[in-house]
Amino acid sequence: MTIDQVTFVKGSTKLGQMPEEPVAEFAFVGRSNVGKSSLINRLFERRNLARTSSTPGKTQEINFYLVNDSFHVVDLPGFGYAKVSKVQRAKWQKLIGSYLLHRQQLVAVFQLIDSRHEPTALDKELMMLMSESSAEHVILLTKGDKLSGNQRNKAIARVKKALAALGQEKPVILTSANDGRGRGDILDWMDTWLTAL
Ligand SMILES: Nc1nc2c(ncn2[C@@H]2O[C@H](COP(=O)(O)OP(=O)(O)OP(=O)(O)O)[C@@H](O)[C@H]2O)c(=O)[nH]1
Ligand SMILES: [Mg+2]
Q1: Does the predicted model carry a pTM greater than 0.85?
Q2: How far is the CA of 33 from the centre of ligand 2 (A)?
Q3: Which residue lies with its CA nearest to atom 30 of ligand 1?
Q4: In this structure, is residue 68 part of a structural domain?
Q5: Per DSSP, which regions of 31-179 are E strands?
Q6: Whose C-alpha lies nearest to ligand 1, atom 8?
Q7: Smaller CB count within 10 Å for the chain: N or C?
Q8: Rg of the chain over CA atoms, in angstroms?
């Protein structure tokens, strides 16, 4: 698949404000600063369509992008940012939780985990939440450019082990927004699911 056209649709902070069109959606979710917006830009080959920042907590809304006039890519606000209040955190969990479990259009969730770190408790919570969802679920390890070849294999093995401990077996793709690795695999998965609809 090639990305021919991308347009920003809208940013939503409530389930009721999300686009109503029955368009297939692929969501990118993971902790703050893990690299969701950067990877989406790389996927689109657009430098700064999804706004990124070295400060965690940049993306505050659920941002919808329409691709090739046929599907949505959804950039979700990050979780696990230490400086947010309890109230904000609870709000995030409610919004993202209900999006992931109840969004009719949702075809697949790409869960991003930093390739340099062990999956956190929140990463594992999200894995468990996804077992209740009917959407497809793929793990993307981010910032793979920062690792050596040996470390990359270790990172993949580590997350597969964490999944197995939860009784799950999911595709794991090593990615980098910097050098573009993994981009082709992400597009191939999207293609496969769109074809199966
Ligand atoms: N080396 C390297 N740095 C990256 C990569 N992807 C993202 N970064 C850096 O990580 C930081 C966070 O990236 P974002 O894309 O804004 O992260 P996010 O997950 O969208 O963060 P929130 O919107 O706060 O949830 C930025 O400083 C990026 O430049 C990557 O593949 N390699
Ligand atoms: Mg972001």
Answers
A1: yes
A2: 7
A3: 143
A4: yes
A5: 62-67, 71-75, 106-114, 136-142, 172-174
A6: 35
A7: C
A8: 16
